[in-house]
Amino acid sequence: MDNAVYSLCFMCSIRCPIKVLARDGQVRWIEGNPHVPGMEGSLCPRGAAGIDMLYDHERLQAPLMRDGERGSGKWRKVSWDEALDFVGEKLKKIIDQYGGHSVVLGERTQLATHVSKTFLKALGSPNHFTHDALCKGSVNTACRSLFGCTDAQMAMDYKNTKNIILYGRNIFEAISVKEVNNLTAALESGAKLTYIDPRVTVTATKAHRYWMIRPGTDLALNYALIHVILKERLYDAAYVDRWVSGLAELQNFVRPYTPQWAAEETGIAAEEIVTLAREVAEDKPSVIFHFGYRGASYANEIYQRRSIMMLNTLMGSVEAKGGFFFKKGPGEVGGKPARKLTEQKFPKISVPRFDKAGTPDFPLP
Length: 365
Hints:
Strand order of the largest sheet: 11-10-9-12
Largest sheet: 4 strands, parallel
CATH architecture of the domain at 138-326: 3-Layer(aba) Sandwich
Helix content: 25-40%
Strand content: 5-15%
């Protein structure tokens, strides 16, 4: 009889919840967790291939240590104790000679990143870095500058949205199963999809409106949308009055950025820009201007992502059904919040990061 084990898929960074069927200690089947809304038991091909990776005859199952000249391809299997002692001794010599801050650890952000950060803090090193500078670092910075949280602390109510705008977020060729299922359900219920991308993708073929925008001009488009929304008072006035500061300054800033100006920049007709602004306003607050997944293509990325988040705010879609919401954990409902090792107190680290991030040269919000 099969034994069901519930876990997370580690075949990519999405970490979809999965149900694993095992028999006699062997994995027989992997599918999406049917108890998680949006998964519906589905899983992408990469996730399903987890069985093949688990039982691949070339998969490393123990530490290997070089046994010969570098490049000779000779390795010997060692125990974890021997491997950890070897690495620890090497690190200790470096730290004793150059200081803890000489240790740099780079990784793809994942569930155990707080362990890596804690390790470096204990050594006295500020030099932990991830791939975010080449991925969603700009999205993260933009989100923190406006909302005081990271983009990872926000999510989108795809299933209940009435109008969604995607900037190069090729969601129907992506690997986030729950997002795709929920957005598909919304489209089947009448939601409208606008897709903006220089490339014609699968997502473009499913959109109600597709704009082949001139590369690097998304920010110009957004300034024009904000211009129309403010000029015609299409925004959620009650929401903005309560939660937004700096509206007058924003209005003055976008005054020169008319749809006609944006048409010259983007290649999108001015009347189409006006039409989108009016159409989205009719569906507010159940609106999503998607701030993207990878935001490291152009020098103006932080401003581009900020402008997307401003559009959501003007529509009153933050914390609204069919819009954006801040993720809630046990701590928000009176339970015990998840504990991270980084919450401990560590000695103050006075040396700057190796890339100067967070210094006057490269300040962060």
